[in-house]
Amino acid sequence: MNDELLFCIPLEDPSGEFEAASELLNALELDFSSYFDRENCSVRHTVYHTDPESAAECREQIKNLLPLWQEIGVTLNMGDTFSLQKSEWAEAWKQYFKPIEISERLLVRPSWLDDAPAPGQKILEINPGMSFGTGQHATTLFCLKQIDKLAGANKSLLDAGCGSGILAIAGALLDYGHIDAFDFDPEAVEVAKENIELNRLAGRIVPQVGNAADWQGRPEKYDVVCANILGHLLISFRFNIASWVAPGGSLVLAGILERDFDGVSAAYAELGFSEIERFTDREWTGGVFRS
Q1: C-alpha to C-alpha distances, 106 to 6, 56, 172, 228, nearest whole angstrom
Q2: Does residue 148 register a pLDDT over 70?
């Protein structure tokens, strides 16, 4: 692949699973790369060629195979072919991430940019890698704003489903006390560790591999719990999630489709939580609950 220009065929797998589609593409002996978009719970595969003719032939081949793949449970959505300079390929995704001002106290900045903060504003540097959490997505932004709003000296914080570690890092910069973080994905935990080191917080936060079904956390519970997890998981594991929150503490729930939020809210109301606030951005809704 020595030519300057790449001709790319994008394929999206909304199931969020790598393996099946990757095996099918490998069987065709195609050159492709895969990106796990945790914020939309999907996998983006991109098949690339060095000339437009072979790209067109490949596109037609894949188009004919899509119905057969769907019969075996692999649904791929194919987008328009696009071209890209080979030298730009590895860096192209970075153009979508911009600095975000969370409040007058906190600026989130991708690690490859050098935007200056306002006076008194702390910088949270983030390199998302393959993990959820840049502040760009509505659910992450909602959680960041709530962590800022609920901050208090020595409050304890749990970041459940930490992804890139952005929420836990925000808590440390905003003067929370004890902070725990976990994610079910070991790769996400490694990315979180890298971002914690990037923000010079190594030892202050130690993310762990875990999941909402069995995480136990601290015996004394947390003043603020952020669970940025899909809605059906928030309901399924509500008893364990509720057990993390200290009496009078705050529970921030996000990652919920708007159509599912009333069901999530009702499930936690049954456990004694009152909905204090909700916010909707496009199809996503987040809420704050008080125990």
Answers
A1: 39, 47, 11, 20
A2: yes
